[in-house]
Each structure stands twice: as structure tokens, then as C-alpha cells.
């Protein structure tokens, strides 16, 4: 087996391949009114169809915007597109703005949180009913938490260069991404420490939830050393998912367990049923309604066509890319993520892909990694905090320093590929946070709240207003505005086309959607 150092050397000898790394972003953000209350208005017509606009859609709630970039081979192109989309949205929202904080704004009572609507086509209704099911299973408030998803893919040539085993390019790609995911699972606690930015939450979010949070002011709860309450278990109770353990040792086992989860009834969901008063309220009564319901920090992904199941597509064509789901919104930037953070993510994910990645024991589940991530989310800035590394305690500071040293060569390799020193600077800048926890985003946010004597709600509202004003101060040029307006118009036409193309009732469509799932066939080694 080729060592990590040898792989790094081989990568350096084949640097042009690194130019073909692709990354994309899906950034969520709640629409709120001028007082920071959740917007209860429909998805704005000026943003097009949430079902078919590939750049501007919604996630769980009608008010939860999701702004999506295409794939880019540079950080500059990636963030330029994300900023352009934010500028377009900011200008179209009129009296509303995007809440630029992961933890929700002031929420109405649960029943009044609007579920996303995608029209009456079968495709749109499937998305809507799935979200009704999420409301039944987890509650609406939990689904209003927002984050940044970072999509990342390596060119197939890299898996060959570093000697990833596999009988075909698809096999090598899938094995390579699963190895990346295993290392990500081991080390993702570091992302929570460095970039977690949700150590506090507004009181309206915690109504009816038993918790042990401290009170910062009359409207703000927090934990003194938390980095990301969004990624902690605060308020999140779901027995069905907590018992679900997917395995990233091999694709066959991963898909088999995923298949089991989306085909096995769960007693509590059976009691709810699929219909109430003649209307669909969830797609089925299984542990997961669909594959994407599985809540995880990172996912292997594969693009699908209409009515194609993700697990079936992945079984047939392998993993295509990975989606990192644990990044909090950076409240200090109008687009929710900075260039240094994006560059660090590239270096970190390349490190995870290239370094040796042993299989997980214990039936593919790594308890220590799960516990480390959870501990850092809630207590990451606690002085002297210790984690578990290979069954032995180690201080977060020592392990963090070690990891940054190991990630450094990958950052420098990316700099040699793209020119400049930006990647190395992005990694080096994180060392100061390891040495002084007061420099982390979570500590900075709490310090700002104390300095301003402001609640999380009031502070976040003022920041969101400033970001909106900054985005509006840079109106789009005529050609770009025309491009976005054409995307909006085309999306409305496409939604109507989908509706007109339906040839079956919704119940039949749901049955066909479920039937499209195929039990994975274990590959012969």
C-alpha cells in the first residue's frame, strides 16, 4: 500500500490534475421581515419557481431560501457566483431580508411555520409531502435551522495517481470518496472548533424544549464553551435516527443499510400513518421517508434524474461527489462563507482524501469520532478539553496543532497549482484560533453580544440589515440582471411544463417513486 507521504509526492508530480477539483455551495437563509420575524409570505414570484430554479430554491420552510452555485474550479469563481445570487435576491426581497445566522430568527407558533410549496405537479407535491413528514417526525422549528453545504469532487485521474484500488474508474472513485468520508468523520470536530458560529440561540426557538442552556439575557440562551449548537443535540430527539448507523467502509454495506432504513417501518411513524383527513402527511412510515432524510455531517452524493432514487443511482453509477453539511453560516460576511474558509475546506478535504484511511471497526461505526464531534460542538472552547484519539486522551489544542501541520502541505500544493499563497495563509491563520479560543467565531459572537448589550436576535437582525444594504449597494449590471431574470422566467415555464406532463395521479406517482428503489446487489470481489 502506498503511504500518505508517497501519495503526496505523486500528487505533487501531477499537479495539473488539481486544477480540475470542483466545488459548489448551497447556502441556506431564512427570509424575515423588518423586525426579524420569520416571513410568512409565499416564495417571491420575482425569484421564480422554487421547484425548477437551479440557483434559488427553498429547503424545509417556504421562508428558508437556499442559494445554489454551479460547480467551479476556483474559489474566486465560486464565491463570485454566490455573491451575485445574493445581490439579486437582496434587490428582489423588497421589505424582507435574509437572516444571516444559522440559528433561527423569531419563529411563530409551530402551526404557523409555513412548509415549502412547489406547486401541484407530482414532482412538486412529492417534495412538499416529504416536508410534511419532516414536520410530523421532528417538528417544524428544528427544520428552520440553516447552514452552508460545501460540495467537493476530485477528478478521476487523482484516484489513479494515488493508487486507489478498484476494477474501474467508478469503483476507484467510490472507494476514494468513502475513504475521504472516514477521515472526515475522524477529524471533522476541527471544523466545529474553527468555524462553529452558533454558540447561542433565541428564546423563541427553545420554547417547549427541555434544556440545560445558560441565560445570556432575557431572550438569549447559550453554552459558555459551545462552538455550534446547530450541530449539537440541543433540542434534537429522534430515536429512529439515533439508532441508525450507516457504514462508510464500503459502498455495498452503506447502500444496504440505507436501503433498510428507507424500507423498514418505524412504530411511531406507523401510528401517524400516511394520511390525515384525506391528505398526505408523509410519504411512508419507514425509518426514513427517502434517503436524504438521513441527518449526517457529510454525505456521498450522486446526481439523479426525475423520479430516480439516490440509492439506486449510486448503486448503478457510484459516488459522484461529497457534500459537507456541518458548516455554520458565517454571520460576518453577506454570503455566509469567506474565501479563507473555502480555501481551508479545499485543503482539509484534499487531506482527508489523500491520507491513509483505515476501515472503521465495530461494524463500521466509530463511537469516538461521534463523541469528539458532539463534545466540541457543545464544549469546544473549554480550557484543557480532551478528546479521544485511537482510544487515548489527547488535548484538543495538541491534536488541532498536529492536524494543521499535516494539512499544511496540501494547502501549499494547492498554492503551487493555482499560484499565490492564499491556501497556506488560510491554514496558517487557523493556528491562532487553536492557541487562543477567544479568536474563534463562536467566542467572537458571544463577546460581541456582551459588548453591545444586545440579544442574539437584535444583534443578528442588525448584521443582516447591514449585509442586505451592502449587497444592494452593488446593483447587478444590465447583462447579469437579464440573465437572472431569464432564469426566473424559464423556471416558471418549466414548472408548468412538469405539471402539464403528468399522466398519473399523485398516489400512483408516489408508488412508482417507491418502486424505483432497488435493493443493492453486493458486488463480487
Automatic annotation (TrEMBL):
<comment type="similarity">
    <text>Belongs to the glutamate--cysteine ligase type 1 family. Type 1 subfamily.</text>
</comment>
<dbReference type="GO" id="GO:0046872">
    <property type="term" value="F:metal ion binding"/>
</dbReference>
<dbReference type="InterPro" id="IPR014746">
    <property type="entry name" value="Gln_synth/guanido_kin_cat_dom"/>
</dbReference>
<keyword id="KW-0547">Nucleotide-binding</keyword>
<feature type="domain" description="Glutamate--cysteine ligase">
    <location>
        <begin position="13"/>
        <end position="374"/>
    </location>
</feature>
<keyword id="KW-0317">Glutathione biosynthesis</keyword>
<dbReference type="Pfam" id="PF04262">
    <property type="entry name" value="Glu_cys_ligase"/>
</dbReference>
<comment type="pathway">
    <text>Sulfur metabolism; glutathione biosynthesis; glutathione from L-cysteine and L-glutamate: step 1/2.</text>
</comment>
<dbReference type="InterPro" id="IPR006334">
    <property type="entry name" value="Glut_cys_ligase"/>
</dbReference>
<dbReference type="GO" id="GO:0005829">
    <property type="term" value="C:cytosol"/>
</dbReference>
<dbReference type="GO" id="GO:0006750">
    <property type="term" value="P:glutathione biosynthetic process"/>
</dbReference>
<dbReference type="GO" id="GO:0005524">
    <property type="term" value="F:ATP binding"/>
</dbReference>
<dbReference type="InterPro" id="IPR007370">
    <property type="entry name" value="Glu_cys_ligase"/>
</dbReference>
<keyword id="KW-0436">Ligase</keyword>
<keyword id="KW-0067">ATP-binding</keyword>
<protein>
    <recommendedName>
        <fullName>Glutamate--cysteine ligase</fullName>
        <ecNumber>6.3.2.2</ecNumber>
    </recommendedName>
</protein>
<dbReference type="GO" id="GO:0004357">
    <property type="term" value="F:glutamate-cysteine ligase activity"/>
</dbReference>
Amino acid at each position: 500500500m502506498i503511504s500518505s507521504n508517497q501519495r503526496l509526492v505523486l500528487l505533487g508530480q501531477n499537479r495539473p490534475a488539481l486544477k480540475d477539483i470542483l466545488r459548489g455551495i448551497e447556502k441556506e437563509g431564512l427570509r424575515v421581515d423588518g423586525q426579524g420575524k420569520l416571513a410568512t409570505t409565499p416564495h417571491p414570484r420575482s425569484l421564480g419557481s422554487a421547484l425548477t430554479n437551479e440557483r434559488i430554491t427553498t429547503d424545509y420552510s417556504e421562508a428558508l431560501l437556499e442559494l445554489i452555485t454551479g460547480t467551479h474550479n476556483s474559489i474566486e469563481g465560486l464565491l463570485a457566483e454566490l455573491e451575485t445570487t445574493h445581490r439579486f435576491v437582496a434587490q428582489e426581497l423588497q421589505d424582507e431580508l435574509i437572516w444571516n445566522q444559522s440559528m433561527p430568527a423569531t419563529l411563530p407558533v409551530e402551526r404557523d411555520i409555513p412548509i415549502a410549496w412547489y406547486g401541484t405537479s407530482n414532482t412538486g407535491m412529492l417534495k412538499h409531502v416529504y416536508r410534511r413528514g419532516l414536520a410530523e417526525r421532528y417538528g417544524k422549528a428544528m427544520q428552520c435551522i440553516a447552514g452552508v453545504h460545501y460540495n467537493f469532487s476530485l477528478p478521476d485521474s487523482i484516484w489513479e495517481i494515488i493508487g486507489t484500488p478498484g476494477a474501474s474508474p467508478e469503483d476507484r472513485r467510490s472507494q476514494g470518496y468513502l475513504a475521504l468520508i472516514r477521515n472526515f468523520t475522524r477529524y471533522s470536530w476541527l471544523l466545529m472548533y474553527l468555524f462553529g458560529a452558533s454558540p447561542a440561540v433565541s428564546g423563541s426557538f427553545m420554547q417547549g424544549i427541555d434544556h440545560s442552556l445558560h441565560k445570556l439575557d432575557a431572550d438569549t440562551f447559550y453554552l459558555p464553551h459551545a462552538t455550534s449548537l446547530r450541530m449539537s443535540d440541543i433540542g434534537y430527539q429522534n430515536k429512529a435516527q439515533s439508532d441508525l448507523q450507516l457504514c462508510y467502509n464500503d459502498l455495498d454495506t452503506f447502500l444496504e443499510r440505507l436501503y433498510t432504513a428507507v424500507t423498514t417501518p418505524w412504530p411511531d411513524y406507523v401510528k401517524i400513518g400516511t394520511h390525515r383527513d384525506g391528505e398526505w402527511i408523509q410519504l411512508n412510515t419507514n425509518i426514513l421517508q427517502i434517503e436524504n432524510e438521513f441527518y449526517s455531517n457529510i454525505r456521498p452524493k450522486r446526481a439523479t434524474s426525475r423520479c430516480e432514487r439516490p440509492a439506486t443511482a449510486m448503486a448503478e453509477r457510484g459516488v459522484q461527489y461529497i457534500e459537507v453539511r456541518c458548516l455554520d453560516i458565517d454571520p460576518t460576511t453577506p454570503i455566509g462563507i469567506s474565501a479563507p474558509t473555502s480555501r481551508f475546506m479545499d485543503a482539509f478535504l484534499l487531506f482527508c482524501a489523500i491520507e491513509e484511511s483505515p476501515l472503521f471497526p465495530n461494524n463500521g461505526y466509530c463511537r469516538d469520532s461521534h463523541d469528539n464531534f458532539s463534545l466540541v460542538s457543545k464544549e469546544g472552547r473549554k480550557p484543557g478539553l480532551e478528546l479521544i484519539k485511537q482510544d487515548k486522551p489527547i488535548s484538543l489544542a495538541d491534536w488541532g496543532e498536529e492536524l494543521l501541520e499535516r494539512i499544511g502541505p496540501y494547502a501549499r500544493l494547492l498554492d503551487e497549482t493555482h499560484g499565490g499563497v492564499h491556501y497556506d495563509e488560510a491554514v496558517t491563520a487557523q493556528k491562532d484560533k487553536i492557541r487562543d479560543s477567544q479568536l474563534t467565531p463562536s467566542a467572537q459572537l458571544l463577546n460581541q453580544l456582551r459588548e453591545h448589550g444586545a440579544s442574539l436576535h437584535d444583534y443578528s437582525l442588525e448584521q443582516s440589515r447591514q449585509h442586505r444594504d451592502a449587497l444592494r449597494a452593488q446593483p447587478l449590471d444590465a447583462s447579469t440582471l437579464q440573465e437572472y431574470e431569464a432564469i426566473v422566467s424559464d423556471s416558471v415555464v418549466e414548472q408548468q411544463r412538469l405539471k402539464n406532463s403528468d399522466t398519473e395521479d399523485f398516489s400512483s406517482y408516489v408508488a412508482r417513486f417507491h418502486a424505483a428503489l432497488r435493493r443493492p446487489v453486493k458486488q463480487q470481489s
